[in-house]
Write a structure and sequence with these properties.
The structure is a homodimer.
Chain A lengths: L15 E3 L3 E2 L2 H11 L3 H4 L1 H4 L11 H14 L7 E12 L8 E13 L6 E11 L5 E12 L2
Antiparallel strand pairs in A: 1-4, 2-4, 3-6, 4-5, 5-6
């Protein structure tokens, strides 16, 4: 679903939106891991079978980037994002595996205009990522900076 | 510097180690952004000049993956890592730009054996990532699971 770009003032506490699903593939898991998280359970299908998850799993960093990309592709931050200054309480609650289809629900927890720069504000967002079995695989809170009007 | 792999019991509060430096390149920033963080200030050198940072900057997710990879390549978690269950208080404190050389210092904050499974424990690690000008560009705390002996 496409969302009209929103400025800081457009976000109200409690507002929610959801992304389109994104597919996690074996090749992408391995390619990402080779550069950004070269642990054997993200990198080698055979060796992963003897690892802590019993199978190949996505790097949590990849799951994070895939989820954020789906959020960004809604268009909600187009031309209004000024980057994020941090993440709080990120939790990887279930392994993410090849063939998983992930969706992200986003909820506004808090909004705060910058005291130093009235041209920007922080929107604190809670993200819940679920797989096709409706299991929560990751949650995190981002501190997203947005332009004011 | 190579570090002998460590099990849960080998980590004591206050122990620190540091990674080798890693170079951030323009091509890698753009390639990563195209898949995991397609904001224009990570994706397009010309448009980034008019963006919030005035130049092309690394996705914070890429900085995270680059930093973790340097940690992993020390060998400290070889065969002992059981993945991580979360991140706390991640802060992006300075933009990361093409040509930056990043190092990560890691400090043990806390260790806790699993109450459910004596074969594993969590080591809570504070990470401080600095550039070649000794500026802190990112900090975060990970909750890393490790095998016990």
């Amino acid at each position: 679903m496409k969302i009209t770009p929103k400025y800081f003032e457009d976000f109200n506490v409690g507002y929610t939106f959801e992304t389109e699903p994104t597919l996690i593939s074996k090749n992408e898991i391995i390619d990402f891991a080779s550069k950004y998280d070269p642990q054997l359970f993200h990198l080698d299908e055979e060796k992963a079978k003897k690892g802590p998850f019993g199978q190949l799993t996505s790097s949590g960093f990849m799951t994070l980037g895939k989820s954020f990309t789906q959020i960004f592709l809604t268009g909600i931050f187009d031309g209004t994002s000024m980057g994020a200054w941090g993440i709080d309480e990120l939790r990887w609650t279930k392994p993410v595996c090849p063939g998983d289809l992930l969706k992200t629900k986003v909820e506004v927890l808090e909004t705060k205009r910058s005291s130093k720069n009235p041209k920007k504000g922080t929107v604190r967002l809670k993200h819940t990522v679920t797989n096709h079995n409706k299991e929560v695989v990751m949650t995190w809170i981002s501190n997203q900076m947005l332009k004011t009007k």
